Amino acid sequence: MDIDGKHIDINNWPFSVPPNTGCITTKQVMLENYPVLSILHDKDGAW
């Protein structure tokens, strides 16, 4: 898998959720390279 031109080895994925897990973000993060400053998820595990 490639993210921003960098190859990511999904066999060494460091998170408990799969790499194709959906999430909500802003256009500033996606298009204007603003940093992700906080990540939250529900008690049921939804991001």
Report what the structure shows.
The protein has one helix and two strands. A hairpin with a 2-residue loop joins β1 and β2. It is flat. The chain has a domain of 29 residues. The model has no long low-confidence stretch (mean pLDDT 81). Strands 1-2 form a two-stranded antiparallel sheet. With 47 residues, it is low in regular secondary structure. Helices cover 11% and strands 9% of the residues.
The stretches of 5 or more residues where confidence is low (pLDDT under 50) are: none
Number of helical segments with 4 or more residues: 1
**Rg calc:** 12 Å
Shape: flat
Strand order of the biggest β-sheet? 1-2
Short key terms for the protein model shown above:
47 residues; little secondary structure; two-stranded antiparallel ribbon; 1 helix; 2 strands; 11% helix; 9% strand
Task: Write a compact overview of the structure shown.
With 47 residues, this protein is low in regular secondary structure.
Topology of this protein?
Layout: E1 2-3, E2 6-7, H1 27-31
Antiparallel strand pairs: 1-2
